[in-house]
Queue: 3 jobs
Job 1
Amino acid sequence: MNNIFAIGSITIKELYRRKDFYVLFVLSALITLMAGSAHFFHDDKIVRYLKELCLLLIWIAALVIAITTAARQLPAEREQRTIFPLLAKPVSRAQVLLGKFLGCWLAVGLALVMFYAFLGVVSASREHAWPLEYYIQALWLQWMMLAVVIALALLGSIVFAAPSSNGTICLVTVVGILLLGGHLHEVALERPEPMQSFLSTLYFLIPHLEWFDVRDLVVHESGLVAWWAVGAASVYAMVYAGFLLFAAWVLFRRKALN
Amino acid sequence: MDAILQIDGLRVEYGGPRPKVAVAGLNLSVRAGEVFGFLGPNGAGKTTTMNVLLGFVNATGGSARLFGVDVRQPIARQRIGYLPELTYYYKFLTAEELLYFYARIFKIPRSERQSRIDAVLKLVELDHARNRQIKTYSKGMQQRVGLAQALINNPDLLILDEPTSGLDPIGRMKVREIILRLKHEGKTVFFSSHELGEVETVCDRVAILHNGELKAEGRVDDLTREHQASLEQVFLKIIGYQPAPAA
């Protein structure tokens, strides 16, 4: 575990010494503040729209940070050849992979905490309330979902040579799952065979990232998700992330480095 | 003396329909406390052999052991230090942060880490620049950071891949001084170099590799005496170099 944490700490350091995160945070903050300063339709409940906008920006920014950070980790190590002095130490490739995963996941978690703290301050300034449990639940579920996304991007970074192509493919896949994943089974039932079986199989195979999206509950404060369900969703995310990391390790351990 | 680096019948082939043999049945052993020069022209198989020793490349056949442990086991690298030919470090880190990271990897106790970092930074004369990011360093300074990271675990075996490549004469002199100092401390150094004068100065024994095969191995004195020539001339003769006829 020592090596995994050490490699993870370098990944976190890299993230906060780069400008990507700050640019996304400032951009999200500016858009939210600008939207928040306007009085649309003289609606007293404008704070709901504000929350909705802010949460959408948080989701977009977190996905971009997670995918771009994870997608460049291993290719950058190989391209800049920093992998060589690292693997010349008593470090296994599995530890490198897990360290990169942990670093990206923790770094994105820190970014989420900042984003949600900002959301909390902005909405509290309007509605003078702190629905903390909603924020914690939304943050936790989003973070769990991002574990699957990061593992997917790490796997992609071993399969695809260029981080940009891997990033694009991951982003399209994740957005596709978020938007269409839940409807896949319904679509399958309307299709003739063999398409029906194919779509049904796909429905049961893909990680259902849309289950982790509780933005509507936060916006309308329409009841918390049962904590046991949050726990089950966390286990579900860890199983998928574990499977994707295992696949990444199988490929990475045989991968020629030069 | 015990062999701390042992290579038996090592064979490495690179894939493809017609595989290229990079190393063909290499046998080599390096004993504790000696400075061993690994020589050969470009493409001879030196770097491939080092890559096998460091676990970057899997051998097609034969075996390689460090301190009696198969090189495919990460623990085999616990007592070695490695300096790559070119400097490849996290440039967003400072020298001190980089060394701290590697010290952590080697599981150096927390109480000893700082003193170890101070000692190696002093040895490579980078004490004054320890808090600057590596990306701001000159090439010579980056090479010295490389040496510092290779020494952070106080290794018993140092593997150096062309350690003076691209350095100015002062930089080369400093690296040579460090190698000699390590030799006097009883460390084992295994290094590749094209600087044959330097090899002659610091090495106890050398091996000359050509087209993946071991062509000669022995004490520097014995080789030069046997051929009645300098190490450079011995080297050129062994690899079969024919000077172009004068126009």
Note: Residues 118 and 242 of chain B are 50 Å apart (CA to CA).
Job 2
Amino acid sequence: MSKLTMVEALSLAMDQEMERDENVCLLGEDIGINGGVFRATKDLQQKHGESRVMDTPLAECGIVGTAVGMAIYGVRPVVEIQFSGFTMQAFDQIEQNMARLHNRTRGKYTISMVLRTPYGGGIRAVEHHSESREAYWAHTPGLKVVIPSGPRNARALLVAAIREDNPIVFYEPKSVYRAFREEVPQEPEMMEIGKADIVKEGSDITLISYGAMMRPCKEAVEDLADDHNINVELIDLLTISPMDTATLTTSVQKTGRCVIVHEGHRTCGVASEIIARLNESVFEYLEAPIKRITGFDIPFPYFQVEEHFLPESEEIVQAIKETIDWQ
Amino acid sequence: MAPENQDTTRATSGEEVVPPHTPSVMNTGPIDLGHIEVLQILNEHGEVDSGLDPHLSDEILLKVHRAMVLTRAFDQRMLTMQRQGRMGTFAPNIGQEACIIGQVIPLTNDDWFAPSYRSFGAQIVRGWPMEQLMRLWAGFHDGFPPPSHVNDLPFSIVVGSHVLPAVGIGMGMNYKKKNDCIVVNFGDGASSQGAVSEALNFAAVYKAPVVFVCENNGWAISTPIQKQTMNEVLATRGTSHGIPSIRVDGNDILAMICTTQEAVQRAKNGEGPTFIEAMTYRMSLHTTADDPKVYRDESEVEPWHCRCPIKRFETYLKNKQLLTEESIKELLESCEQEVIEARDKFYSMPAADPCEIFDYLYESIPDELIDQREEYLQRLRNKGVNDE
């Protein structure tokens, strides 16, 4: 065990997977000698060579489209798109080929590839560098969408994603990249894609979140326990699609109350989907309307005011108190 | 109205920066596109350029001729079936047979081919059963996957969307140190897609073993090449990315085979991609849902009848004593018969299974889709559709 940041943990996952399987390769802009703009691929080109850690031309659509072709040919590409805002350039290839070719060919060709990209706000970045558009990919049949929240689950989920025989969109919360360290075992470990994690059991209310928003949620859970004697069950979704509906419904059946937090836009966002599912299957258990705290339906603001856009623990505490007190 | 607080340090017109009548520093005359060769070996009268005749074996020549005749027979049968209401929308290829057949003749079974929707002639040569192609155009999912022994992509529907994956397959060949190559087929319309430019660039940068065959048939539905681009020499899309490029008479089967063969050899020698612009003409409809009379003067089509790729090849083969009028007639009948047999097979194939639409999206079906599939199967049961 050693204490790693999320970036170091991701790097460890890629390094070990490349050692394990010679078909695993990396593609992306500036990922070679430069180690990627966030240094997630630091030293990997020096270690594994230019043919396996490929610096690409500056064209996101080209990166994803060619990675799809490599996957068809039996290579297992792990693509880095520098910022999730730039994945829009690749929408064409994600939707038309990455997500579809397995279905189009009735499984003759397997698209074993991972599209890694940092998402979300909080690092005072210029416009187009703070988006949280995971709902786009969850809305696209054929993809799986994974969002880790800390170093250890990031490493375990990335290993699982690289070994998965389906195309994965892997959103990395960039504000967490270097925010804290966690014990990460040297031996490879995997977490199952499609399973949510009950981070803390509780009886009064279910709090659902993922990615960077897990940090304010954890703060809120502690405050509520310390100051208000409210026992929150906290769930880290980890996989947005396919969603682990069973874990969510079981929890809300027990608590009867639910709050959902994400920084992505509200309309047709992940929270909307969770609310719809809970409404369909555990409506009769609900003691109060489900609340959601989300990004607003505006472009991510310029960074001088971003702290006011992102959900904070105080609001989460408030929303939970209101839901508990709802008559 | 002059704004208040005008910044007097800012120039307000170009003339204040550079005085009028200053000699031009830009060459704004006609752009020199460089030298792009247009290759023709067999002219429209069936006369061969003896210096360029590749002297293909009789066996290959007859095989290629049969493939062209069979493709046209398939084409015409599909149009008939579509008019009878027994086929979905179909994109005919009449007049482009040399182009589509020639580009796959040099490929081995280990090589790959990435077709677009008008590429069925090449698909037949590559080993796609005609009844499967009928199934595909008739809206059956099982028509789409390449047969188990065929290394092809399913054909692209969104124009140009397959060119990047094709380059990726070439990059995969380099990655796995395989001595194979891929031919990717697209049209003049696709050349305007940004993804196609990105594909050319990636192929050049990574020296991917890719042969780009751009079939310039003059029309993208109703948009003529003159409105598609201000640089009609599409081969320069290749050269501008540093890719050796050539313009070929796409109705000349010998030129198509020779250029593709050379490009395939370059790819396999590790010399990287080649761009072939094949000049041809879309004599028929874009698809059966299209009426060209709305947008083009039919007199434009007329000269292309004389440039028919099959007729000129037959003249060449007759001159080589490989064909006679009689054997041509017999061959046509045998090809039509083969298509009829495929059609009958297609008619006797099972109906589409409505229960399997969830089954191929992922390697294994996730729980939430199992629930949705159950909901769907219940819908089928309610409608009395057998789900066994």
Note: The interface with chain B takes residues 25, 51, 54, 56-57, 59, 61-62, 64-75, 92-93, 96-97, 101-108, 110, 141-142, 144, 164-166, 194, 242-243, 245-246 of chain A (CB under 8 Å).
Job 3
Amino acid sequence: MIDNAELPTAERLLALEIRSQKMGFVVFEGPTRLLDWGFRSHAHPTRRLREVVAKRVRPLLFRYGPSAVVMRRDNHYSSQNPARLRISLGAIRKEANRCAVEFRLLRTKSRKHFFVQVGCDAKHQVAQLIAELFEEISWMAQPKRKAWHSESYHTVIFDAAATGLVSFATEFNPDAVRELIANTESFRRPLDDVAR
Amino acid sequence: MQSQILANYLRTYRKRSGLSQRELGLLLGYTNRGQASRHEQSKTSPPLAIALAYEVIYRAPVSTLFLGMHDGVKTTIEKRLAAMEEDLQGRSAKNSDAESIARRLEWLMERREH
């Protein structure tokens, strides 16, 4: 549960993961604690997208007053509309600036590199690691999907959590995150077992 | 950079439990989710009975659930106690009044040490 002793010094971070029709969010308080998580839909026409995305992000910024908003710079999937992603990113950046919250973009490559280092090459392995680190969202973790299955709507939450975790690892408290990951079961197990 | 403590952590505890605001509202004795939502957003403060109900539901002390509020109250009260102690130390009294002041000062000192 929440550790009071750590609270006053904990860094609060809003990690976001955007898709063309929705966004996943995770609010961290320090690298080990999740305050809130979920996703918000912005399945609206592109001409209204900027306004809708701002409307979805604003309550999170006001409620949690994070010190930074972090998201991936280049999460262009073949199925995602790059124009909509660009508009959403712009709207989030503007809203963060308006609330005087630092806005950070994390390269997908550096995020992938971080997880490869800890033995998680595939997306479902990253999701499993996140689920082990944060048991409150473990029930949402999905098994490896087949190519013809569509993505679970919970995946954006795990992607956002992964971005937030890497941001903590690279910018705030690398040792704490590495120690945290080193203590998980999947890190200790051989990778073949993890993939099974 | 440090973040301010949230006024309350009700939403975090609720999300961990997997309860919806409606279900929580029913547990608290409300007919809808409105009040639970307002408490989470710190738009209103719950009455004492409801605050204790939160403690029972989440098995966490009220001071943890309402950490920011607790912090604010603590700061205010500590300031008032310091002012009271200063006032008592500045007073001059005789006999029973002096004993009463001494007792209060002693209590304030004991309280500070614990």
Note: Chain A touches chain B at residues 1-2, 4, 7-12, 29, 34-38, 63-68, 136, 139 (CB under 8 Å).
